[in-house]
Design goal:
By secondary structure, this protein is an all-alpha fold. Among the domains are: 118 residues, no CATH class; 85 residues, no CATH class. It is 63% helix and 2% strand. The chain is built from 24 helices and 2 strands. The protein has a two-stranded antiparallel sheet. Helix 9 runs parallel beside helix 11 and helix 18 runs parallel beside helix 20. The longest helix is centred in the middle third of the chain and has 21 residues. The relative contact order is 0.05.
């Protein structure tokens, strides 16, 4: 392999001569890897700054770019994305251009980027991985190294997304199909990853605020995968769609249609918002549970639980008196969730149950009369209180007696 002048200090031209190992590309040592990294970085750097004679870049941007190029390699790497965004710079960076010309004037770069994966898999993988970190189209990289395995191609595409392409979608808002075409990406995995980045990045606020519904956003940003759609639907459900569902008296399916939501998971989020909002208002107005479920289209278990809890707090707790039975009330109103039952049993135990125990009634008899399960937390609390009363005759005088 030809020699390469590589950077060893903070200034670009503090150089030394270096050779790849004698066995390269048959084998690959750490020195070879370091040289490959430097070659790929320098070979890509001049092309990062496109010659654009008719445009001028702001002086501050020019100063920033030149400062970064002159600084340490680590600093350059840290700010690589910033440098790449200076694509309108009128000429290639002067201090970088000679070194780039050196790389391209020898056969070194040509030789490296055409090493066959089939013949030298380790070396080709290393070079391809480094190239993928820059803005070279992945399709060019895999073609140069004759990589045909789709799973391996996808690995390089993921590297490209992690290092630069993903930022262009997540930060700059490039449509997914444009990013795929521009950067030579073709795998389903790469597309899905970019779509999720788009959904979690520039599309998020548009969907969360209701400026675009889910289907409009998918069309505008080139999103087609089921997984990315679910991300968008959940964002919408927790945002504008959820606000509408919780505050209006619309059926849940009308809200879903308005915001382009179809998934079960997003529907559940909307139903919970309804149960905590508009449906809870209907509970306080005296509606029965089945009428509320039918009116709003509430079917998910999580939303039904929220609705039953609201019903217990608003409608049943005020009914507790010395003759109240929690189990009878739950049966009468068709309440089945464990959390709603726990809530009603706890309130019954703290009032009617406590009163009976402090009067000296056996706790087992108290839980039976109050309709409280013997294996419940409310029953355990009453048993502890009964033990205190039995062991300390003054216990009753330390507790206010319920008079409800």
């Amino acid at each position: 392999m030809p020699e390469l002048a590589i950077n060893t200090g903070n200034r670009l031209f503090e150089t030394r001569r270096a050779n790849t190992s004698a066995e390269f590309p048959g084998t690959l040592n750490n020195q070879d890897k370091a040289i490959i990294r430097e070659i790929v970085r320098v070979a890509n750097a001049p092309s990062t700054f496109q010659v654009n004679k008719n445009e001028k870049i702001a002086p501050l941007i020019q100063l920033t770019v030149e400062s970064l190029v002159e600084s340490s390699h680590a600093h350059i790497k840290e700010h690589q994305f910033l440098i790449q965004q200076a694509a309108a710079y009128s000429d290639p960076i002067p201090k970088l251009k000679p070194l780039g010309n050196y790389i391209h004037s020898t056969t070194l770069w040509h030789d490296l980027k055409n090493i066959s994966f089939e013949q030298y898999p380790v070396a080709a993988t290393c070079i391809a991985s480094e190239r993928a970190k820059y803005l070279e189209p992945t399709s060019d990289i895999t073609r140069d190294h004759q990589i045909l395995d789709s799973s391996i191609i996808e690995q390089f595409e993921m590297i490209a997304i992690d290092k630069n392409v993903g930022d262009r979608v997540f930060i700059l808002g490039s449509p997914v199909h444009e990013a795929l075409s521009r950067h030579g990406l073709s795998s389903a995995g790469a597309r899905e990853k970019l779509e999720i980045l788009a959904a979690e990045g520039p599309v998020r606020n548009l969907v969360a605020t209701g400026d675009l519904n889910v289907e409009e956003a998918m069309l505008k940003f080139g999103i087609v995968s089921h997984k990315a759609r679910e991300v968008l639907e959940n964002i919408a459900a927790k945002g504008a769609a959820g606000d509408v569902a919780g505050k209006s008296f619309l059926h849940i399916e009308d809200v879903m249609l308005k915001f382009g939501i179809v998934s079960t998971g997003a529907r559940e989020v909307l139903e919970v918002r309804v149960a905590e909002g508009a449906a809870a208002e209907c509970v306080s107005k005296g509606w029965n549970l089945e009428s509320i479920k039918a009116e709003f289209g509430i079917v998910s278990e999580k939303a039904v639980v929220k609705l039953e809890e609201a019903f217990v707090k608003d409608r049943l707790v005020p009914l507790i008196n010395n003759d109240f039975s929690a189990s009878a009330a739950l049966l009468k109103y068709g309440i089945k969730s464990d959390s709603a039952r726990d809530l009603l049993e706890a309130e019954t135990g703290l009032t009617s149950g406590k009163y009976r125990v402090l009067r000296g009634e056996p706790w087992t008899e108290v839980v039976r009369k109050c309709g409280i399960r013997e294996d419940s937390l409310a029953a355990d609390t009453l048993k502890i209180l009964a033990d205190k009363v039995a062991n300390d005759p003054h216990e009753i005088t330390r507790h206010p007696v319920w008079t409800g």
